[in-house]
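On clarity, I found the account of how folds are encoded harder to follow than it need be. Since the whole study asks how a given chain folds, the encoding of that fold should be made plain. The format is easy to grasp once an entry is in front of the reader. For illustration, here is how one protein appears when written out as sequence plus structure tokens.
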Amino acid sequence: MKKLIVVASAILLSVATVQAQDEVSFGAKGGVNFATVGGDDFDDPDARTSFHIGGFVEVPLTDKFSLQPEVYYSGQGYDIQSNDNADDIEFQLDYINVPVLAKYYFVDGFYGEVGPQIGFNINSEIDSNPDGDSGDINFNSDAINTIDFGVVGGLGYKLNNGLFFNARYNLGLSDVFSSEDLGGFDIDARNRVFMIGAGFAF
């Protein structure tokens, strides 16, 4: 875990140093996740509601175009069971995600962003009591792939004071489950996350 954070932080710092200090902006961001998985072996499972939080560096390349690497925690996964007559059960998949985004300002603070992302799985569990202190169900965490590749894209609006709001979609490209640790059995499932957030650029 510590090694992943160090590597991700080094990526942010190395990109930031290629530009003059007064051109680069640093920031913090956070928000709500509506996460699920998609694939041939899953029939639209209910979304797990969680959150994301992290930081970023925005490096302007032109007046309208920037490069923005980020590091953030993201609660992902899906709901196995969620109704009023039974306990909620969540499949919790938590990641440290590191996207590198191309960011384009269309007009008056309105921007679009898109780019590749690599995620590092830091937690995987089945929780029958996600709102309480206990409720974990035995699960072979080795069955979850450690690395997750994806593409993210979104839209946002940034105010002159640095405050911004955005909506983003994380489209996973890698299999969530490891066939090797499932006895060679392939499960087609990829992360799908809709994110709504806000932040501040310094």
Q: What stands out?
A: Residues 83 and 89 are 10 Å apart (CA to CA).
